[in-house]
């Protein structure tokens, strides 16, 4: 089973990715993890990626695509894979189609966790963090057991990251919507797109995903 997992920031993609790989023996391929592993292993493509990142530049598509191709040839992908964070553009999606065809590992599904952006803006803007240990809380559904006291370390100072401030969150979501929409259309045209309702309990979201995956087994 070969998948792409998509969703806007705050939609619960990370949580669902963890649940998927626990239930199904497939490799979870996060772009960030892939870059870090290639750089740590000192591969030629890893060195190229590092040289761009060290200069604060975007890694070119050909390097990223080369890393994806290398990663999809590793033994843990034989039972399947789940891409998270790639592709991000139509050009990358087209390259992935070629790569997976060449490796005989075509995509089976693209699962999009869909949540209203207004709800996501509220979710993300409600996050706050313990200044002492970094534990994350949310004013909407995950506050410390004792108000003003971190569950993990007992600290009393909290802060909100700049990334989680309302104006930054709105901009971040808009950028992601503009990036994701063409990809969703691309995969819908190819009858690969499945959309699940992310605005419900975590287990209910996973139950929807399980139904999709069970139909492919």
UniProtKB/TrEMBL annotation:
Pathway as given in its UniProt record: Purine metabolism; AMP biosynthesis via salvage pathway; AMP from ADP: step 1/1
InterPro entries: Adenyl_kin_sub, Adenylat/UMP-CMP_kin, Adenylat_kinase_CS, Adenylate_kinase_lid-dom, P-loop_NTPase
A Gene Ontology biological process term: AMP salvage
UniProt catalytic activity: AMP + ATP = 2 ADP
Positions with a binding annotation for Zn(2+): 130, 133, 150, 153
GO molecular function term, any single one: zinc ion binding
Binding site for ATP: 10-15, 127, 136-137, 200
Annotated residues for binding of AMP: 31, 36, 57-59, 85-88, 92, 161, 172
Binding partners and assembly: Monomer.
Classification via NCBIfam families: adk, PRK00279.1-2, PRK00279.1-3, PRK14527.1
Free-text domain note: Consists of three domains, a large central CORE domain and two small peripheral domains, NMPbind and LID, which undergo movements during catalysis. The LID domain closes over the site of phosphoryl transfer upon ATP binding. Assembling and dissambling the active center during each catalytic cycle provides an effective means to prevent ATP hydrolysis. Some bacteria have evolved a zinc-coordinating structure that stabilizes the LID domain.
Full protein name: Adenylate kinase
Organism name: Lacticaseibacillus pantheris DSM 15945 = JCM 12539 = NBRC 106106
């Amino acid at each position: 089973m070969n998948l792409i997992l998509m969703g806007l920031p705050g939609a619960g993609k990370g949580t669902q990715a963890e649940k998927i790989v626990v239930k199904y023996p497939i490799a979870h391929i996060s772009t960030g993890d892939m870059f870090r592993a290639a750089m740590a292993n000192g591969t030629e493509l890893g060195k190229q990626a590092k040289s761009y990142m060290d200069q604060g530049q975007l890694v070119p598509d050909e390097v990223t695509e080369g890393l994806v191709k290398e990663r999809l040839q590793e033994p843990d992908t034989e039972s399947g894979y789940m891409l998270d964070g790639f592709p991000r553009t139509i050009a990358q999606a087209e390259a992935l189609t070629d790569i997976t065809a060449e490796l005989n590992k075509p995509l089976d599904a693209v699962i999009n966790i869909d949540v209203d952006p207004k709800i996501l803006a509220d979710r993300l803007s409600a996050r706050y963090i313990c200044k002492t240990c970094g534990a994350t809380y949310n004013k909407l559904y995950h506050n410390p057991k004792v108000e003003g006291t971190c569950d993990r370390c007992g600290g009393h100072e909290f802060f909100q990251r700049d990334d989680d401030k309302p104006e930054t969150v709105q901009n971040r979501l808009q950028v992601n919507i503009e990036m994701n929409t063409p990809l969703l259309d691309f995969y819908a045209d190819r009858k690969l797109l499945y959309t699940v309702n992310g605005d419900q309990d975590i287990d209910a979201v996973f139950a929807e995903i399980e139904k999709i995956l069970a139909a492919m087994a």
